[in-house]
């Protein structure tokens, strides 16, 4: 079984943190701090709860003056963060909790703390309180030579960042976010490109028409943006949006027939659902996006549809066989319920076949 993320915060990490803090601030009371960290509520705390517990406990052992405390943390961070370490987001969390009333000091701190880490969560509190000032700062970071700062500029203003506070203003009107994306649209860093695509995908969930217009314009201006645009339009593609599919060249599969859809009628919880099928045509199959959709049974007897990728490409043959499996092993992001589910095979956004199976 994979190690729980919350266990990134452990005795070894706290020991290292204390060691680095003592180098910067010899008066730091490492022993008492450690006792406060591993209190009676430590074990059940989840990842973000442990992060917040550490950052707020730190505040009681650092100088009361925010500027002085941040300077100590910056020096400590630079010693601890030689490579990416998720657990070091305690530093950004300290800024999020205690730095909202000192904008400039906090911007300098988050700029430091995002290197080999990420300030994408902490910056959102500043967007909510100082939208104009913070977005001005993000535009400056978007032009930085450092890919971590450019990525922060893009990731920090995502309207629907997972695990982050939703930015409702940008869900309603993403104009300021689009200014950042325009600066970064031809960035050479894959790290930044992924963030840009994820931001576009966020926007598409609330403002699909805006993303479709961007898709048309960016694609016409520069063909090299194709990967970013496909990844950024993945929700629209999975929804089978006809205009988006058409722009990428996926036509309605009127010439294609689906045969030999084979799948077991039931599957046990924890096992794999295996299925296969054949796509066939009189000429050539052409450019295809092949997916499957499962309508998962929910606790309230309603269903929740999820679309999954099978294959995508140009097929010059008359016939192509496909096989796939879906694992019903327990995962933290989805709960399974016994009963009748359905699976559909989608080709270029169109359902060509549908079957039921029982999860038991």
Description:
It is a single chain. With 360 residues, this protein is α+β, with helices and mostly antiparallel strands. The chain folds into 2 domains: 5-199, no CATH class; 257-359, Immunoglobulin-like, CATH 2.60.40.10. It is 45% helix and 20% strand. The chain contains 16 helices and 8 strands. It has helices spanning 11-24, 30-37, 47-59, 66-80, 90-98, 103-113, 122-129, 131-142, 147-155, 168-172, 175-184, 190-206, 208-221, 226-232, 234-238, 242-247; strands spanning 257-263, 266-267, 272-280, 286-297, 303-315, 319-327, 339-347, 350-359. The strands form 2 sheets. Strands 2-8-7-4-5 form a 5-stranded mixed β-sheet, with no helix packed on it. A 3-stranded antiparallel β-sheet has the order 1-3-6, with no helix packed on it. Strand 7 (339-347) and strand 8 (350-359) form a beta hairpin. Helix 3 (47-59) crosses helix 5 (90-98). The longest helix is centred in the middle third of the chain and has 17 residues, at 190-206.
List the helices and strands and how they pair.
Blueprint: H1 11-24, H2 30-37, H3 47-59, H4 66-80, H5 90-98, H6 103-113, H7 122-129, H8 131-142, H9 147-155, H10 168-172, H11 175-184, H12 190-206, H13 208-221, H14 226-232, H15 234-238, H16 242-247, E1 257-263, E2 266-267, E3 272-280, E4 286-297, E5 303-315, E6 319-327, E7 339-347, E8 350-359
Parallel strand pairs: 2-8
Antiparallel strand pairs: 1-3, 3-6, 4-5, 4-7, 7-8
- How large a portion of the residues is in β-strands, by DSSP E? 15-25%
Q: Element order, helices and strands?
A: HHHHHHHHHHHHHHHHEEEEEEEE
Lateral arrangement of strands in the main beta sheet: 2-8-7-4-5
User: How many distinct helices?
Assistant: 16
Question: What composes the largest sheet?
Answer: 5 strands, mixed
Shape: globular
Mean pLDDT, as a whole number?
Answer: 95
Q: Give the helix level as a range of percent.
A: 40-55%
Computed structural class: alpha+beta
The number of distinct structural domains comes to 2
Radius of gyration: 25 Å
End-to-end CA span? 23 Å
| Low-confidence sequence ranges | none
Total strand segments: 8
């Amino acid at each position: 079984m994979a190690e729980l993320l919350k266990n990134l915060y452990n005795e070894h990490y706290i020991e290292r943190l204390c060691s680095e803090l003592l180098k910067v601030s010899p008066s730091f009371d490492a022993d008492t701090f450690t006792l406060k960290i591993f209190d009676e509520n430590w074990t059940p705390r989840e990842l973000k709860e442990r992060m917040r517990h550490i950052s707020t406990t730190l505040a009681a052992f650092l100088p009361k003056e925010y500027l002085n405390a941040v300077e100590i943390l910056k020096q400590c961070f630079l010693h601890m963060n030689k490579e990416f370490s998720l657990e070091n987001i305690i530093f950004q969390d300290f800024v999020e909790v205690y730095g909202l009333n000192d904008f400039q000091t906090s911007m300098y701190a988050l700029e430091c703390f995002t290197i080999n880490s990420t300030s994408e969560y902490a910056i959102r509190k500043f967007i909510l309180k100082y939208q104009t000032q913070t977005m001005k700062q993000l535009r400056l970071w978007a032009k930085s030579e450092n890919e971590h700062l450019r990525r922060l500029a893009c990731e920090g203003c995502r309207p629907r960042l997972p695990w982050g506070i939703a930015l409702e203003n940008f869900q309603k009107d993403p104009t300021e976010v689009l200014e950042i994306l325009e600066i970064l649209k031809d960035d050479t860093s894959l790290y930044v490109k992924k963030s840009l695509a994820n931001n576009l995908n966020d926007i598409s969930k609330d403002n699909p028409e805006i993303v479709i217009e961007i898709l048309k314009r960016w694609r016409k201006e520069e063909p090299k943006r194709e990967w970013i645009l496909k990844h950024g339009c993945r929700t629209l593609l999975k929804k089978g949006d006809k205009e988006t599919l058409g722009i990428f060249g996926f036509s309605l599969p009127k010439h294609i027939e689906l045969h030999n859809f084979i799948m077991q009628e039931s599957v046990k919880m924890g096992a794999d659902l295996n299925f296969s099928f054949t796509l066939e045509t009189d000429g050539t199959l052409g450019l295809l996006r092949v997916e499957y959709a499962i309508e998962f049974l929910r606790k309230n007897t309603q269903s929740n549809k999820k679309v999954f990728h099978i294959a995508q490409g140009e097929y010059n043959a008359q016939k192509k066989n496909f096989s796939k499996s879906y694992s019903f092993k327990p995962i933290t992001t989805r709960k399974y319920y016994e009963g009748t589910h359905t699976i559909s095979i989608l080709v270029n956004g169109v359902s060509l076949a549908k079957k039921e199976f029982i999860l038991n």
